[in-house]
Design a protein that fits this description.
Keywords: FAD, Flavoprotein, Oxidoreductase, Redox-active center. By secondary structure, this protein is α/β, with parallel strands linked by helices. It has 17 helices and 30 strands.
């Protein structure tokens, strides 16, 4: 008679429950026990900010499954309020404490799955433990914040950190009617994105009444007589990456508030991993093989606590997202019951809504591509998501490819509509090794209610391919400034109308409208490196072609046109450069 397999899972949010459910599908005979120290399981953590704002009316909507549901559906024993405090890999046992009774007991396992997730990073600030200071990680946190707002009649909030959770919380509290201040130590919100994309998010926040303080850090939280947070001390002039509370800025101010939400990031929960003696990877999360095995026999790790690897570079990567957690849980649950599923890596694909903007990214940014050793070719493609006559709205796609191979490396997209569709197409293309030239040939769905005849993805591929081949070279705003600041004489030609030029223009540019360019090309020096530009890039490319046809050998088009360049100028000014 075959001995019954016993699987113990520690943690029951996305990855743990996925691993347990898939293991049950792989083995009807296995005994599966899940220990969870919290009271809620399998909840939608990404939906928590929307409970704060009232978009989600009851917290129950975000916690649709309980222990009884898993027992009935899968025959899995989920024990909430039970904390696993130790692991003995030699004996294959775990030590468990029942948090309600205080009782401690030992349980055995054949296979152990660590799905212990992450904990919010809470900087050691004076006053950070005061009433009215919260993190937002689980339903209990969300319930506490919403009750605080309602019971105290809160009108002001400070959010520390401008990543996904911070920005979603800022949006929801603003829509709830609170005055919101966001404090971010980096130069922009969304620090994982390139600055020339993130600045559009900054503009959206400020246009909606959010006070966004960048290059700033919180130094302390002041409290009132009842011990509740009443103000935040903020130091301006922070060095990016130095962290809240490190205290080396230029000026300090006080921001009065009724509550504080700390959203500066998360870190893997590694106590059990260390107890089990498993190897922690370069990223700071548990190192695993493609199936989820750790360095310890019969111990697996999945979800946010586990390391992944970058699909492009192959390097270890850690991007804690619910989509990856579900995937890795399913893979390990399959593998530990005899299956052959393996994880194929991540691109860090993500999307977040910030008021009217969808903000998305996949793969490498320009900065990361350069740091990884690629020679990045970059395009800033500004196009409507569908025709203007059916309400099309402007979208920016910044895409990156490798100059040597043509391989598509990454993309970032920002716009009110259609961003999710394009980022998913680009993520799929990158996953399967597409080159920039391949994007034009994709047979994408078209109807004017959904897209333009040449989709923004097609245009992105065309522009990248032209830049790589040299037929339509591109230069970014930052590169143009670097070249000029370095003393290179670059001839910049504005091919827009006089009306557009009167609004703003690239410094020291020559104005020759496109309609006059053929007749007036002799006014330019064909021996000089030349950059043409328009508002967004299309007319600049037409001017580029005219000059190439007239014998100008070195002609580039300004990527993203004057609109992108002026944003770059504002960014330089804000940074004091």
């Amino acid at each position: 008679m075959t001995e019954r397999l016993k699987i113990v899972v520690v943690g029951s949010v996305a990855a743990g429950t996925s691993a347990a459910a898939k293991a049950r599908r792989g083995s009807e005979d296995a005994e599966i026990v899940v220990y969870e120290r919290d009271t809620d399981i399998s909840y939608s953590g990404c939906g928590l900010p929307y409970y704060l704002g009232g978009r989600v009316e009851t917290i129950d909507v975000l916690t649709p499954r309980d222990a009884a549901w898993f027992a009935k559906r899968y025959g899995i024993d989920v024990r909430t309020g039970h904390e696993v405090t130790g692991v003995d890999t030699a004996a294959r046992t775990v030590t468990v404490r029942d948090l309600a009774s205080g009782e401690t007991f030992t349980d055995d396992y054949d296979e152990l799955v660590l799905a212990t997730g992450v904990s919010p990073v809470v900087p050691p600030l004076p006053g950070v433990d005061a009433d009215g200071v919260f993190t937002l990680r689980n339903p209990s946190d969300a319930t506490a914040i919403r009750e605080w707002i309602e019971n105290r009649g809160a009108r002001r909030a400070v959010i520390v950190g401008a990543g996904y959770i911070g920005l979603e919380t800022a949006e929801q509290l603003t829509e709830r009617g609170l005055d919101v201040t966001v404090v971010e130590m980096e130069a922009h919100s969304m620090p994982r994105m390139d600055a020339d994309v993130a600045d559009r998010v900054d503009d959206e926040l400020r246009s909606r009444g959010v006070e966004l303080l960048t290059r700033a850090r919180v130094t302390s939280i002041e409290t009132s007589d009842d011990g509740a947070a009443r103000a935040v001390r903020v130091e301006a002039g922070a060095e990016p990456g130095s962290g809240p509370g490190s205290g080396s800025g230029d000026a300090e101010r006080t921001v009065e508030t009724d509550l504080v939400v700390v959203a500066v990031g998360v870190r893997p929960n590694l106590d059990l991993a260390r107890a089990a003696g498993v190897r922690v990877g370069e990223s700071g999360a548990i190192a695993v093989d493609p199936a989820g095995r750790t360095s310890a026999d019969h111990v697996w790790a999945v979800g946010d606590v586990a390391e992944s690897f970058d699909l492009i570079t192959g390097d270890p990567a850690w991007v804690p997202l619910g989509s990856t957690a579900n995937k890795t849980g399913r893979i390990a649950g399959d593998a530990l019951t005899g299956g052959d599923l393996e994880h194929r890596g991540i691109l860090g694909t993500s999307i977040v809504r910030v008021f009217d903007l969808a903000v998305a990214q996949t793969g490498l940014t320009e900065d990361r591509a350069r740091a990884a050793g690629f020679d990045p070719v970059v395009v800033h493609n500004i196009k409507p998501d569908r025709p203007a006559y059916l309400g099309g709205q402007e979208m920016l796609i910044k895409a990156v490819a490798d100059r040597r191979t043509g391989r598509l490396l990454g993309a970032q997209a920002v716009g009110p509509s259609g961003v999710d569709k394009r980022i998913d197409v680009l993520a799929t293309a990158i996953t399967f090794g597409a080159k920039a030239e391949d994007l034009f040939h994709l047979d994408l769905a078209y109807a004017p209610t959904y897209a333009t005849t040449k989709d923004p993805v097609h245009y992105t591929g065309m522009a990248l391919d032209g830049a790589i081949s040299g037929r339509a070279a591109l230069v970014s705003a930052s590169e143009l400034d670097r070249r000029r600041d370095g003393g290179e004489q670059v001839q910049v030609v504005d091919v827009r109308s006089a009306k557009d030029r009167a609004k703003s223009a690239v410094d020291d540019s020559v104005h020759i409208p496109l309609a006059e360019l053929r007749a007036r090309a002799d006014e330019l020096d064909p021996a000089l490196p030349t950059v043409t530009y328009c508002n967004k890039g299309v007319t600049g490319n037409a001017g580029q072609n005219v000059l190439r046809g007239r014998g100008f050998a070195d002609v580039a088009n300004l990527s993203g046109g004057n609109k992108t360049y002026q944003r770059h100028v504002r960014g330089r000014s804000a940074e004091g450069r």
